[in-house]
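Quick question: who can interpret this fold?

. . .
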Amino acid sequence: MSTDKTVADRLLDEARAKTAREESPALGKIALIVGVVAALVSPISILGWIGGTAALGLGAVAVRRPMCEKQAKIAMVLGVAAILVGVFFYTLNVAS
């Protein structure tokens, strides 16, 4: 008798791993951290744009997971705010 798993056991293991990934709040926390950092560095225009875009992207992916939906939405708001602040400071620098 071999030690290979049956097809049903492999499918069950894959389903359990997928469920564990979906229930993990790690992506929401990462998106929130990136959003906060983006908001902090947004007066430096290019960093605000890059960080805000990253926060928006991570938040959009994380919002599909029910465990971290609230954190993802906050990260997306912070990302938009960082982009807007970056645009403001860029315009301010160009105008002066």
Remarks:
- The chain has a mean pLDDT of 88.
